[in-house]
Amino acid sequence: MDLILLEQELKAMELDNDIINNYISYASNLKNNNVPVIFELEHLRKLLHISREEFFGIYYSIKYQYHTIYIPKSKIKYETNKGITRQSKKYILPKVYYDNEVRHKFKRYNKVITDLTNNKSSYYRKLDLPSKKLKYIQRYILDNILYRVDVHNAAHGFVPGKSTISNARVHVGNEFVAKLDMRDFFPAITAQRVYGLFRSFGYNKSLSFTLTKVCTYNGSLPQGAPTSPYISNLICRKLDYRISTLCIKNNLNFSRYADDITISGGRKVKRVLPIIKDIIKNEGFRINDEKTKILHNSHKQKVTGVVVNQKVSIPKSFYRNLRQELYYMNKFGVSSHLLEKQTMFKSNTKAYYFGLVHYCYMVDPIKGEKLLQLLEKINWNS
Description:
This protein is α+β, with helices and mostly antiparallel strands.
């Protein structure tokens, strides 16, 4: 927004000079913070090109604009008949309610669940999915407001141009790698913290409340909304700065991918870990102590799914299993292989496997090329 044109328009409305100056000062502050000038709720609605009836219909029914589902985690613990706890990649499903309407969006999983019983929620990841119309508004906020504000350079999750691979590269070739996990990451980022974020951009109280209401659900960030990951990165800027400063002083490496914090370097890693835990708690987050690990380079060091001992590389088991799957699809046909796996892949099967192979290629071009040759031989109609 051109401030000169804005001033001319305000003067044409014959407003008092004090009011004009307030508008100009407000707009100037937003421009200095590199975010778009938005004055109030009605102004936001016009920028969205949504009718008044439709916009306020969504705005005043936010809690009804979400659909909650649960998807199985990759590995779950269960009790065998002998009372021994084991881990399995196969999903042991409790009594649940299935939703056929949304299952197609998550073909990677055998079931999509809309309710849980028997206290099995720890086996599943909860997703609060916004409606199509609400998601459109959230996407506008993400693209036009949030992405215009920089996150800390240690943040790699959900940042354009970064990935799990860029996160792992930070820690290649170090004696020690320490990994910490923040428990209930999105729920810990409350609506109050999100409101404070929008206020820090320079938006007025009323508009900050509006933006917060659109981006939160049940008082915190919903896991499933497009705005949540980047908002979490912005909220964590102070956390990232404090840990980064500590690590620089101790000649250590630091990166964060969403709720996963990784520190690497020499023996000082062990020394600074208690301080880092205190910083995390001080910034309003909880640590999942069960997932805290310190890995020596005499063992496999894996960061966000990538081995980092001497170079970034694909875990041998992942490569071996994927190569085996591609071989079976070549030999027996895609349908037969998926039937044997009892997997619900359908329309996105080809894209899924191409995605896996492309990921391998980015990490290790030599192994990725071998997988690509197998992939290109597959008859996807078989």
